[in-house]
Amino acid sequence: MKSHLPDSIRERALQLRGNADRAQWEIGDLVAEVTDELATATRSKTATVRLLAADLGIGYSTARKYETCARTFPPAARRDYDALTFDCFAAAMYAPQPEQVLRWAVESADDWGGRPAPVDVIRARVRELLNGAEKTPEQKFDELYDRAVHALQAALEMSARGQVARRYLAAVRDALELLEK
């Protein structure tokens, strides 16, 4: 995937990206350090992160994401995969084996015009891994079947309690009957 942007714009964007990456790592390391030092029996980790996030002018979930990423990937791992952005690491941290995903992202550079796999592609790979891309079709079917039955039973209960329109009750019952045959 070759960029069609002028080189001057790409260079400027990459410089900004690098600055943002450094800031995200530094904030993640800071949040981890501060919560380790200040979270006590009287102030929870959550309260400490909320206070620090407010002082930084970022959301609590953003501060936690930075912290989790910093804890997941120590500086040595960051150096090993320095071609990747912070967001690549953040996407990979949810994988069962995050460093394997990072290695895959870097090794797939030939597929992406010499650059590592884009963040959206890394996220898709992590979803595949989490959803059991290694499962057999029968295992996937069984899992989907169980989820469908559970969802239909929950919908039936909601309909019976009057939480949704009664007109759906017959459709839900019919679907459950089909699944149970």
Sheet with the most strands?
none
What is the first-to-last residue Cα distance?
Answer: 48 Å
Mean pLDDT over all positions: 83
The helix fraction, in percent, is over 70%
Features:
single chain, 181 residues, mainly alpha, 9 helices
Q: How would you describe this structure to a colleague?
A:
This protein is mainly alpha-helical and 181 residues long. The chain is 72% helix and 0% strand. It contains nine helices and no strands. α5 (86-92) packs parallel to α7 (119-130) and α8 packs antiparallel against α9 (167-180). The N and C termini lie far apart (48 Å).
Secondary structure layout plus pairing:
Elements: H1 7-38, H2 45-56, H3 60-72, H4 75-80, H5 86-92, H6 98-107, H7 119-130, H8 137-160, H9 167-180
Summarize the structure.
The chain has nine helices and no strands. Helix 2 crosses helix 3.
